[in-house]
Design a protein that fits this description.
The complex is a heterodimer.
Chain A: H1 2-15, H2 18-48, H3 55-104, H4 107-112, H5 115-157, H6 159-165, H7 168-206, H8 208-213, H9 217-242, H10 244-269, H11 275-316, E1 338-345, E2 355-362, E3 367-371, H12 378-383, E4 396-398, E5 401-402, H13 408-413, E6 415-418, H14 429-434, H15 443-452, H16 456-461, H17 479-491, E7 497-501, H18 509-523, E8 527-531, H19 535-538, E9 543-548, E10 551-556, H20 558-563, H21 567-583
Parallel strand pairs in A: 3-8, 3-9, 6-7, 7-8
Antiparallel strand pairs in A: 1-2, 1-4, 4-5, 9-10
Helix pairs in contact in A: 1-11, 2-3, 2-5, 2-11, 3-5, 5-6, 5-7, 5-11, 6-10, 7-9, 7-10, 7-11, 10-11, 15-17
Chain B: H1 21-31, H2 35-67, H3 72-121, H4 124-129, H5 132-174, H6 176-183, H7 185-223, H8 225-230, H9 234-286, H10 292-310, H11 312-334, E1 355-362, E2 374-381, E3 386-391, H12 397-404, E4 412-417, E5 420-421, H13 427-432, E6 434-437, E7 446-447, H14 448-453, H15 461-470, H16 474-479, E8 487-488, H17 497-510, E9 515-519, H18 527-540, E10 545-549, E11 561-566, E12 569-574, H19 576-582, H20 585-594
Parallel strand pairs in B: 3-10, 3-11, 6-9, 9-10
Antiparallel strand pairs in B: 1-2, 1-4, 4-5, 7-8, 11-12
Helix pairs in contact in B: 2-3, 2-5, 2-10, 3-5, 5-6, 5-10, 5-11, 7-9, 7-11, 9-10, 15-17, 19-20
The chains are: A alpha/beta, B alpha/beta.
Bound molecules: adenosine-5'-triphosphate (2 copies) and magnesium ion (2 copies).
The site of one magnesium ion (MG) has 4 residues of chain A, from helix 12.
Chain lengths: 584, 596
Amino acid sequence: MSQIGTLRRLAGYTVKYYNDLIRGIIALLIADALALIIPWIIKEAIDLLPQRPATTILIRYSGLILIVAIFQGVFRFYWRKHLFTPSRKVECDLRNDYFAHLQRLSWSFFQHTKTGDIMSRATNDLTAVRELLGFGVLIIVDTIVTVSTCLILMIIINVRLTLLILLPLPILSFIVYRIIGGIRNQFKDVQVGLSNLSTIVQESISGIRVVQAYVCEESTLERFKRINQEYIRKNLSLTKIRTLLPSMMIFIAGLTAVIVLWIGGRDVITGRMSLGAFVAFNSYLAMLTWPMMATGYVINLIQRGIAAMERIEEFLDIKPEMVDRDDKLPITEIKGEIEFKDLNFSYYPDRGDVLHGINLKIKKGSITALVGPVGSGKSTLVKLIPRIYDIDGVGLTVDGVEIKRIPIDLLRKSIGYVEQEPLLFSDTIRENILFGAHDGASDEDIWKAASISGLSMEIERFPNGMDTLLGERGVTLSGGQRQRLALARVILRRPKILILDDAFASLDAQMEEKVLREMKKVMKGITTIMISHRISTIKDADMIVVLDQGRIAEVGDHKKLISIKGIYQNIYRQQMLGLEMELV
Amino acid sequence: MMRGFANNFLEDEILGKAYDAKLIKRLLRYIAPYRLEVVISVLLLIIISLLHLAGPYLTKIAIDDYISQKKIEGLNIIAGIYIAILITGFVLQYLQVYMMHLTGQRVMYDLRVNIFSHLQKMSLAFFDRNPVGRLMTRVVNDVEVLNEMLTSGLVFIFSDIFTLIGIACVLVYMDWRLALILFTIIPLLFIIMALYRKKARDAYRKTRISLARLNSYLQENISGMSTVQVFGRKEKNFNRFKQINIENRDELIRSIIYNALFFPTIEVLSAMAIGLIIWYGGGEILEGIILPGVLVAFIQYVLRFFMPLRDLAEKFNIMQASMASSERIFKVIDTPEDIPNPEKPVKIEKVCGEIEFQGVWFSYDSGDSNNYVLQDISFHLKPGESIAIVGATGSGKTSIINLLGRFYDIKKGRILLDGIDIRDIDKYQLRHHIGVIQQDVFLFSGNIEENIRLNNKDITLDDIKKVSTYVNAHNFIERFRHGYQEIVQERGSTLSLGQRQLLAFARALAYNPAILILDEATSSVDTETEILIRDALQKLIKGRTSIIIAHRLSTIRYVDRIIVMKDGRIKEMGTPKELIKRKGIYYNLYRLQLFP
Ligand SMILES: Nc1ncnc2c1ncn2[C@@H]1O[C@H](COP(=O)(O)OP(=O)(O)OP(=O)(O)O)[C@@H](O)[C@H]1O
Ligand SMILES: Nc1ncnc2c1ncn2[C@@H]1O[C@H](COP(=O)(O)OP(=O)(O)OP(=O)(O)O)[C@@H](O)[C@H]1O
Ligand SMILES: [Mg+2]
Ligand SMILES: [Mg+2]
């Protein structure tokens, strides 16, 4: 019965706007009360007719109806305004919370959850929740008010008749009770189907370069069709039961009309009831028809809203891992000394370690290089420093402080990290360089960063210069340009710790040499960790660490490592000697 | 951040009219295959509306003919008829709704398949311009809006109009004078609706734009969340998001007010109508022109008359949204294939792999700008020859190979494959013969085997294992718990980049193409693995034409010839030995990697 919890949570969001709600409900009450007066006036007028009243009296009645209607209109306007507004506000709050929550979730969440799915919940599901709050709340309140007052008035007119028309109610509630759970589950199915649909579209379009190059259009289309069909099937099976409710409500409403006509008619004939009362009774009944139909609709709405909210909650309830611990230290600055002590790490608790027994001390301001085969754990090791992944124990310290006790915002603020596959945003080049900058970076700073990373000449050559708009993920740049843009982005950040994960891999030798030379000037005093497969990039590092299958195999500087027989020497030979021979 | 987005949203600004005959006509074409269902459904609707109208009329008969005359038996009969009508109405209603949904779903399916397959035909230039989020909205959400129109807009508007006309007829039939008096309200109704329409349109456009902006921002933040977090942009981005979100909210709240105004106004009109009936109709009763039952029926009919008008605003919004959606959808469908397939493609059975570029000029800009990325590129590759392209970053290497597979079309010059202009070859067939490892590796969610095979059923698991061994991926794949069935996440994010690159390599080899293209295929691979691959490749590329782009010169030691690119032009071309002798750009690069 998490359903109750879900509703409570929604209520929590809504209650904040009680001001609007109360005003809305009061206006609604008044409007509904006024609405009840009109049939009464009609009744009076009709009952008056056999007494042959003067036309002026009839005009007075008409005028009265109009005046009441105008007042009613004013209040209706008010309740619509005040009851719908909170739903929009709640939608906005919920979306903010969703976003803020996503921001706190760890990388592994995003790696294991499809973008299309996360999006779908923030759009399609959120819409369903909002509709529940807007129309749902409105119709519920309206229905309760209208139904109860109408009933009271009807009781005043004729108790017996009123009781009789309530006869179908228990049957109705029983049926509703029986199908309601099914409806909710099917709604959920449909929303899942919609997510799947979004996901396949999202992925096939993101991967269109591969799809087209490998001529997979047809098979992708087949997969798309399958998911599409699945979605339609779910939709139709939902339709089957969901349609039942509104149709049934109309039927029940009609049934009560028959009862009134039949029994009430007899009452008029036998003189137990006046014709005017009969007509008024009918008018009230007509007023009930709409809320009755709406009830069928609103039950669907609520079920869908709850199903959708449950899906949003699935994500909201994931505990964010990357938050400050209670015992964090009031550190305000990071100097940049890093130490790994007997560190083990694995991505999944039930699988083997990716890193084993890492012991490494990185001095402040030094340059450390990591080399090693594919999948040896280089990227994993550096990802632990900005706490992209958290270690279990206490094996990692920065400035001698256990990393989890450093305020995470400070830690990340002090780190400049060029990912192995940097992500750019579909914005201008300028905004992309500015992305991680601390406040107050001037245009000059931006150009300087661009020139250090060897981009400024190319940017000048673009027709729009710094204001060139990039495609999504930066697709309209060449691979090397993207990488250098990512470099410029961290240079402007002026970090204390600089992590370059294979950040020169897409540069030609000449450019690499140039960028490296320029960067060394600004890297002074910054603790730098660089990963590379190229000897030329790393040979000047203070310390070179060779990783192999998650273990440190060799440590030392270039001179030392080429003199001992091992992995590094081997790499060196392969990269240099082969070429030298040719040159001769 | 994302300031530059503004001009990306023009397309979302498209604002349909609530009714656009051209669009409706096109939509009808999608409905045409299901016309039988639609016709039946509309017929059912008409019957249902009639049945609904019967209620008040039965009441009138009951009052005037039986209740006032005190005839109980007649009343029984009327009640019986009423119940029968109700049951029929219930069944028909259920059938109608189901039928309409069925049709709606099928139309949606067709439409989605149509858009999706059209998207697949677009060139990369199109995808450079259009963010994924937007295209996803076209296929998923815009179609969903159309479905809503189909199932709860269009048909109901039909039935509403029918109901309105039906009621008008009945009213005229019962008492034409009273009816005419009532109809004086109709012009007022039109004025109110026209006013509302204008306001609602404006509001709709604004909310539409702010929502599009909101969703794109969200999408980009989700896919780039890691970067956002590491760069400490949490707060900044949250504030930006919040700001867009609140803008959107306020825009929406403003549009609530229009709706809130419209609905009560209609109600006042309805009260006015009732007032008129009592005043004028009452007078008529006094003069003996009509019976009281007529008056009662009139009132009931008028209430019903205004019922469909109550949610007219709702329906109007649905129509408005769906016209805008369909316009956007059709805009995608109407975007011509900018790299069309030749009408009469030259048949190529077997490809020898002779490639020739003749004075090729190329620019990514459409139109005739002089912003050439490639200028006057000419070279010739004999079948089975291997060639390397080296050069500074951004010099146009990737662009050259993009042209070969016709992912973009050239501006000037010709590209020939086996002596045939590639523009005369079926582009799918052309691509079939080219196996390319792209600079940006993309893996699909699924498993490793699927990612190498890419739905090509001719490739067996043994083949996959073989090529994985060639590229030295077999070892690490075997180490995974599920081996080749190990799950791959979106974009392969749980694999190391080098591993991803090896899988992409294996994918290209499994494809067994006549022409092999490697674009920085081993840039993230360690030297030892690279040498293993290179040696395996030496065997593999025998007899295949191959083009290899690499910055690490050790990668290209064994190629037959080298092209050196600079600023979009070929600067040097020749065998490695020749180029070293020439002491030009290549020689310098070479020395730099040796003795930096
Ligand atoms: N899709 C695109 N749209 C517009 N311009 C592009 C696009 N792709 C590349 N360019 C531009 O064309 C030029 C050549 O890019 P290309 O990708 O061919 O370079 P490259 O030689 O492969 O460089 P790298 O070694 O860095 O990969 C660059 O200036 C780049 O900005
Ligand atoms: N997010 C993740 N979830 C699960 N496993 C992962 C994840 N990221 C990496 N791995 C696995 O951990 C191992 C080490 O990966 P890592 O990315 O650290 O390698 P690397 O040394 O950087 O390799 P490369 O040179 O290819 O970049 C690999 O076997 C990889 O498959
Ligand atoms: Mg890595
Ligand atoms: Mg390239």
